[in-house]
Amino acid sequence: MEPKILYRAAVEEVPEESYTLPIGKAEVVKPGNDLTIISYGRPLYMCQAAIDAAEKELSGVKIELIDLRTIFPWDRQTVSESVIKTGQAIVVHESMINFGVGAEVAATIQNGAFLHLQALEKYILPDVTRVYNAIHKLLAY
User: How far is it, in rounded angstroms, from Cα 86 to Cα 64?
Assistant: First the structure.
């Protein structure tokens, strides 16, 4: 079985001569200094479109896009160096909620670049206000 959504989802040039992709080596698809986005596979194209739109809207912002290319092994060094450089990271992937590739990437960022992060999530623990707001949001649906 294979996901049909991938058919004709993206069209890229394929070299006619033989080539290899290094296993375990990510590619910096687009360099930037303000934010790092880490992805792989189909979501990479969505990320590129979102980056294009954000950079048009946010004058002077340069977002780095990293394609993991392989997920086992994956390139921890390139990801960590980029997040240390930009101080901010977004991980975009399609996976299950628990134990996915994104969780591994986020854990590695937390372990190796935590002191360099500038935009940590404020609310990681529930409180009355968050639960109250969730009630309203769900009942309004």
Answer: 8
| Tokens found for residue 94 | 């399609």
| Domains in the chain, number | 1
Range of the domain at 42: 4-139
What confidence tens digit (pLDDT) does each residue in 31-57 have? 999 999 999 988 999 999 999 999 999
CA 79/CA 89 separation, integer angstroms: 9
CATH of the domain at 111: 3.40.50.920
User: Element (H or E) spanning 16, and its range?
Assistant: none
Q: Residue 125 belongs to what H/E stretch? A: none
Q: DSSP for 58-120, please give it.
A: STT--EEEEE---SSS--HHHHHHHHHHHS-EEE---S-SSS-HHHHHHHHHHHHHGGG-S--
Which pTM was predicted?
0.79
Average pLDDT over residues 83-111: 89
